[in-house]
Amino acid sequence: MNPSRAMMDRLRTWCAACGLWALLGAGTAWADEIVLVSPDYWCPFSCKAGAAQEGFTVDIIREIFSGAGHTVRLVNENYSRALAHVRNGRFTATPSTFREEAPDFVFPRVPISRNRYCFFVDLRSTWRYQGAASLHGRKTGVIKGYSYGPELDRLLREQPQDFETHTGDDLTRRLVQMVQLKRLDGFVEEENLVQYVEKVQPAGAVRNAGCISSSYAYMAISPVHPKAAEYARLFSEGMLRLHQSGRLKAILADYGLTPWPLPPAGTRP
């Protein structure tokens, strides 16, 4: 074989290898799947897997990670099982978790949602929540088994006569209807959930009459995932871009929600 032909053969072999490496590299990136797990009854936070709207937290995570070449898939499980399966590495993350619920997980610096329990009343009512005394003589609906945070949980213990406890399915919608029918003076519920109910049931509008302290939820990543720290960084950077670009506003609008302010940087994990 002459030198020039040998050189051409080596060049062809090298080019073929480069093509194979490129294909393998693309396949690896595509196979880097983020698998989220959460219940299907947390709309608008997370909803039924495969639905037209899987939840705004799922949409946010998909927007961020698809831009980095990853795919995102949602699986539905009850919450306790979901946490267990993320903890042992079966799934990548839960889309929306409070830090105290899974302190051993890996959390981004930037939260995925703000959660506030608020008092909701009829649109024509002028009442506003101004502490314990403002609840006297009213009938305010709450949901059995809920923890509403230290302030309101204390009020539920100390003045139970001012609250009416409810159980069952589809409670947020039912509480809205009870206020409109004047069977309740108001009720307490998470504000994003009420805004979502108002979007899917336009006749069910109520007025926010004041909120108690805020808490923030995060994408909670498996502590045993080898890329947990990288995913946390990608999420934080992406979430800041969504806030700054206005893209977050568009995602939330699909669920009838509005953006919230980020917590001060010094309070993030």
Question: How would you sum up this structure, described in words?
Answer:
The strands form 2 sheets. The chain has a 6-stranded mixed β-sheet, sandwiched between helices. Strands 1-2 form a two-stranded parallel sheet. By secondary structure, it is α/β, with parallel strands linked by helices. Strand 1, helix 2 (56-66) and strand 2 (71-76) form a beta-alpha-beta unit. The model is unreliable at 13-31 (pLDDT under 50). It is built from 8 helices and 8 strands; from the N terminus they run αβαβαβββαβαβαβαα. Helices cover 38% and strands 20% of the residues.
Labels describing this entry:
269 residues, alpha/beta, 8 helices, 8 strands
- The neighbouring-strand order within the major sheet is 3-8-4-7-5-6
Number of extended strands? 8
The shape is elongated
Average predicted confidence as pLDDT:
87
**Percent helix range:** 25-40%
**Segments where pLDDT lies below 50 for 5+ residues?**
13-31
Number of helices: 8
Order of helices and strands: HEHEHEEEHEHEHEHH
| Overall radius of gyration | 24 Å
**What structural category do the secondary elements indicate?**
alpha/beta
CA distance, first residue to last residue: 65 Å
Please indicate the percent range of residues in DSSP E strands (runs of 2 or more).
15-25%
Major sheet: size, sense and barrel closure? 6 strands, mixed
